[in-house]
Amino acid sequence: MQVRYRARVVALAMVTLVGAGGCAPDRQADPGGVGAGIAPVGSAEQVTGAGAATLPDRLTGSTSKPRSRKLQPKVAAEPTRTTKAPKPSSGRRQPSPTKANLTRCEQGEHQREVETYLARLGGFGTLTVDGRQTDADCAAIKKFQQRYDIRPAEGRAGPTTLDVAKRLATTDVKRCSAGSGTTFCVDLTRQTTWVMRDGKVVAKPTVTRTGMAGYATPAGTYKVNLRNLKEWSNPYEVWLPYWQRFNGGIGFHETTTYLHNAAIGSHGCVNLLHADAVRWWELGKVGSRVVLVGRRPGT
After folding, report:
1. What HEC string does 21-88 produce?
2. Nearest residue to 45 (alpha-carbon basis) of 178, 167, 166, 145
3. Which residues are catalytic?
4. Residue of 72, 69, 71, 74 whose CA lies nearest to 84
């Protein structure tokens, strides 16, 4: 009985490892394509410390309790001309200009860098590039995190937020030789993608995740040759939503795993967030040009 049990385990391991060509997201994905295999909220940031628990009313300045002040009405030296009694002050402590502003958002270790890149990108609100967290900064950072599915989206400038902001802000759209018509561009080095039409950007750079080590997505120029709203991957038994194939078994599709988990990757495909996969599908068609430049680090 023990020999038969070991034989079954070995056979099962061989079936898991063997697969045909083509790409698909990590096997954590939901076979039904609804994303049930997505990593738990906050897991990726917590690995690097960015997702540490924060107090809802935590102050970015001193954490000591303010001393209470008993307000005494002022007594005039000579009450011969008493007018209205002076109003007592509210007793609120005003933030000192030499200390960090008070805010409900925790300040991350990459505050100034994130502020700098978000200010360069624009479109996320008003930021002050000074390395000090404010409610306005927090709102802008949170909006950025929500747009690119960075978890948790709490307005804290952690490592993942810095990484994404830097990659997007430093993407050079001119590296893509677009030409006429619609061209999907992919910067494999920065792991970003954008769309151009007749030489103009019609979809700004967004994040992507391409082939992992051993399955590097090749650079080059290709054309979309097959499109399917929901393609089934036989080798990896997973749905590929908004599928646009352009090179063998490689194509664009929505990922069903947490995109910012850099420890995993596709088997060559260009993974997209849901909103971007829908947009790429709307812009593309059979014959659309695809240009990939650079190489993903570590592959």
Report:
1. CCCCCCCCCCCCCCCCCCCCCCHHHHHHCCCCCCCCCCCCCCCCCCCCCCCCCCCCCCCCCCCCCCCC
2. 145
3. 253, 269
4. 74
Contact in structure between 182 and 293 (CB atoms under 8 Å): no
Domains and CATH numbers, the chain: 22-40+173-293 (2.40.440.10), 99-157 (no CATH)
pLDDT for 287 equals: 97
Burial 47-67 (b: 16+ CB within 10 A, else e): eeebbeeeeeeebbbeeeeee
Q: What is the DSSP letter of 101?
A: P
Which comes out higher in pLDDT, residue 100 or 184?
Answer: 184
pLDDT one-digit tens code per residue, 255-278: 989 999 988 999 999 999 999 999
Q: Enumerate residues 6+ apart whose C-beta is below 8 A from 221.
A: 177, 289, 290, 291, 292
What's the rounded Cα separation, in Å, for the pair 4 and 144?
A: 54
pLDDT for 116-167, tens place per residue?
999 999 999 999 999 999 999 999 999 999 999 999 999 999 999 999 999 9
Quote the CA–CA distance of 299 and 286 in Å, as a whole number: 29
Task: Tell me the whole-structure pTM to 2 decimals.
Answer: 0.69
Instruction: Give burial (CB, 10 Å; 0-12/13-18/19+) of 232.
Output: middle
Six token digits for residue 65: 């309790």
Q: Are 205 and 213 in contact (CB under 8 A)?
A: no
Q: How far apart are CA 276 and CA 244, in angstroms?
A: 13
Q: Rounded to 5 degrees, what are φ and ψ at 167? A: -60, -45
